[in-house]
Amino acid sequence: MSTAPHPVHTHDLAVIGAGPAGMSAAITAQALGLRCVVLDEQPRAGGQIYRNVAVTPPTVARLLGPDYQHGAGLAQHFAACGAEVHHGALVWDVAQDLTVMVQQTGRSFAVRASQLLVASGAMERPSPLPGWTLPGALNAGAAQIAMKTSAQVPDGRVVLVGGGPLLLLVACQLLQAGAQVAAIVDTSPAANRRRALPHLASALGAPALLAKGLRMLWRLRRAGVPMYANASEVRLEGSDKVEAVSFTAKNSAHRLLTDVVLLHHGVVPNTQVSRLLRVKHSWSDVQLAWHPEVDAWGQTSLAGLRLAGDGAAIAGALAAECSGAIAAIGAALALGRIDAARADQLAAPWRARLAGQTRIRPFLDALYRPPEWLTGCADETIVCRCEEVTAGQVRTMVRLGCEGPNQTKFYSRCGMGACQGRMCGITVTQVMAQALDRSPAEVGTYRIRAPLKPIALGSLAALAEAPGATTPKP
Asked: What range does the domain containing 299 cover?
């Protein structure tokens, strides 16, 4: 895409995203004397995990728990660190020379720094179940966002379907908020326990994290919430909206009446920017997702481009905070502001904290690995919501000779909707891998092109009006 002339470097480090990784990176960079600019799409700092944390009423903050409240201190430190911050700033393109194109208040401008750190965070894994597009069915994370932004909870009977710590956390938060949690339908296969067992010894090295999970389970059981384990053959039923969840558990068929279904099968890295820039990625058979390849300082295969937080690999908010600081130290090292010995000295405490946070990760990844039947979904199940392409259509395309996700665009516009493949990309790769009897790594994924998200034509026109313009004052 043709844009305005690239600006000269105005900053040492540009950070995309103001979640825990981005905030921590900016704080560290400023402390090291780097000129840092932060570009964040949200109206306030915090990312998804700490969304709205700076202005959340105390009653809602207590409801969301101490993990969420930790973000308030980080946000305060970030606000005081002196970094240039642009909120409501949508990044829609990044060039190979690391020039970032941004839209803010309907106008586009360019930012260029010597080092670029992408802290794009995670996104919820798609849950392509029959009926998952019905009104009343949404991701568990969406319900949590409603609590954080407007203190709202779903009305009526709520059934949570899927697996993972976030599913349990949202269920506990809904209970405390007064919502009617009708049941939890856990789709984690029984075989996951055997997979997780070899990692238990390492997980025991993080007793606080294990205890937190056990407390959530105990709380749900004490509240009398029905919990169905190892569920399969899950379907959401209804005509104009979701009305029931049917599934099989312990060789018995179940059908639960419901008003709202919250789906969650874990989170995956948001790799739109890193794939736009064609840096090296690998398929993780552990987390069933694409991971950008980074070194110990967050450096990718493109010089100057760094990744930190869940956008590189899923590890949680506190781990993201650590990796953001480490990446900023790596940027300072690359710019010659500190030497290698000083960089290692500064990074050592962050690396120790990071190791403590990630010790439990292999156990959780194995215990809550999504079931294989999730992407072996029925032919009528929609996998690309934007263009309403079904799993059966994807399999038909394979039979017609389609060998990769990018070819599906020619056959059906799959992956060409407003989300640019963010929501369907992983599912399409896995469905095709099964149909072709190949690994997801061999099948590949969508090529990402700019604009990353829809932008107004008037925003592009602003570039012609002010060629070579750099960041406006925040």
From this structure: 11-123+268-338
